[in-house]
Amino acid sequence: MSEVTVRAAREDELGAVGELTINAYHADGFETSGPYALKLADARPRAEDAELLVAVDDTGAVLGTVTVAPPGSPWAQVSAPDELEFRMLAVSPAARGRGVGEALTRRVIERAGELGLRAVTLSSSQDMYVAHRLYERLGFRRTPEADWAPVPGVDLITYRLDL
């Protein structure tokens, strides 16, 4: 197993990030067509209007990605002004079980600390059980009072980690 490094996505990686995100969601059985799929596939707006991170191995292969939405980012959906939100955590199906999702999530938590924010928040599909176990293991707690539906029939649950 090679070492995983988390860093900002580079311009030349944006296409790979979009493809990886779509593939990861598809592998988990989620719909990968329609308006939301277009957002998943197009990493450029996330890189421009938020912080787009990648996890890479020692060869530079992109193994995973996450979108970090600091206060004021148009990508923030459920966070308060003093909270950091993350979205679209995706790990390549071929890289699962190597700690990639955990490395990305830990970097998000570190980033919130660097920015002096009081918490990290996120929304998740009810069916993303593996991700939920990761969040809970890292200390996130469910915040059912903040659960929401961006569109009818898409019910999202929320988590929060106080720093």
UniProtKB/TrEMBL annotation:
Keywords: Acyltransferase, Ribonucleoprotein, Ribosomal protein, Transferase. One of its GO terms (molecular function) is acyltransferase activity, transferring groups other than amino-acyl groups. It holds the Pfam family Acetyltransf_1. SUPFAM superfamilies: Acyl-CoA N-acyltransferases (Nat). InterPro entries: Acyl_CoA_acyltransferase, Bact_Acetyltransf, GNAT_dom. It comes from the Bacteria. The keyword Protease does not apply. Residues 4-163 form the N-acetyltransferase domain. GO terms for cellular component: ribosome. This is Ribosomal protein S18 acetylase RimI-like enzyme. It comes from Actinophytocola algeriensis.
